[in-house]
Amino acid sequence: MKSKVIGLSQVKATLSAALLLLTAWLATTGTVRAGAPATLALYFIDVEGGQSTLIVTPHHRSFLVDAGWAGQGVGFIPGGPKQARDANRILAAARDAGVSKIDYLLITHFHPDHDGGVSELAKLIPIGTFIDHGKPSPDAVRTGPDIEPAFDAYRALLPGHPHIVPKPGDRLPIPGVDVTVVSTDRATLGQALPGSGAPNPLCGKAAIPAADPHENPRSTGVVLSYGQFRFLDVGDLTGEPLFRLACPKSLVGPVSVYLVAHHGGPDAADPATLAAFAPQVAIMNNGLTKGGAPGTFQSLHHVAGLEDVWQLHLSGNAGANGNFPDGFIANRDEGTSYWIRVEAREDGSFRILNPRTRQWKSYLPRAAGLHESGAAPQ
Ligand SMILES: [Zn+2]
Fold first, then answer.
1. How far, in Å, CA of 190 to CA of 292, rounded?
2. What are the phi and psi torsion angles at 168 (to 5°)?
3. Which of 3, 61, 157, 369 measures 20 to 30 Å from 281, CA to CA?
4. Interval 83-93 mean pLDDT
């Protein structure tokens, strides 16, 4: 057999070609985006009407807001971590983002659709710093039988970890992004954030009363800025504290993405709050019947400057004309568990993936114009 000698330049060329192929493959899997600018990734994980939002900074620091339910959901019935529905969905998002640790975990408030999944999650992936509003109110514990056992399981994880109980206006020490606390334990910002403070003409006299008066209004809310991109997540903040952020003037100012408060429940429907946050895009972490109240859908259909609303689920509550178009809905039923993924850049541009339809939609920085550059998902 005739042997073939391969020169150094051919070896280099072969290696380069292999590297290109590998890079192209990795790019299709989402692991590496060769040559792409640094991006902030946000995963709105489907936890069937609870909350779990994974944020991964350009330098691969991870910040998880809430951890969904324990076990198979609803109530607080934890089981083995391998069978834990929501914890495994969070783990899948972390793997997709290429992180092997949750550096910061914020529990917005002590309801089992937000803190229930933490103890199972902690067995699947290390958690660094814990952030919360302290402890559930006695009234919440008295009226919700799942609240204390879920909190006890959560509290048992804290020893040996940094634990932050912030005040409004505090900044969380997450490198690469600016995370400012806007609400916690019923308290809200004492003054408007830089660039906000405009009077809000849509304010009525009072807040829509909170459906749950005990824990939801204690939610720890944050605005996360990455350059010009701003994301507002207030957990289930409703009632008076949500109103105070919006009226009589907006203390938060306009945001790129607003995670609609309280899963889009009826107490998140006030047009004044939506006008105050002036979101470019709203995302609703509703379930098939949880959240997504008809009044909230109605308000969302009439927000000035709002380009799109994305839903984690088709809502059975919304009626035929309430749900936004199919391409903006991650899950049509409970048989799938697609997340909604946002990739944001420092200049304020971002794009959103619906993994069910495999369609991205791109959004320009607001200062550059209100219209999207990408094709609308169908
Ligand atoms: Zn909730």
1. 30
2. -55, 140
3. 61
4. 98
Gap from CA of 51 to ligand 1 centroid (Å): 6
Please say if the pLDDT value at position 117 is more than 70: yes
> What are the strands of the beta sheet with 350-354, ordered from one edge?
163-164, 127-131, 102-106, 62-65, 53-56, 40-44, 340-344, 350-354, 359-363
pLDDT in tens, 350-373: 999 999 999 999 999 986 444 444
CA of 113 to the centre of ligand 1 (A): 5
Q: What torsion, rounded to 10 degrees, do the Cα atoms 95, 97, 99, 100 define?
A: -10
Structural domain spans, the chain = 39-368
Note the pLDDT of residue 74. Answer: 86
CB atoms within 10 A of CB 195: 11
Q: Which is more confidently placed, 297 or 5?
A: 297
In the reported structure, the alpha carbon of residue 358 is separated from the centroid of ligand 1 by a whole-number distance in angstroms of 28
CATH class of 39-368: alpha beta
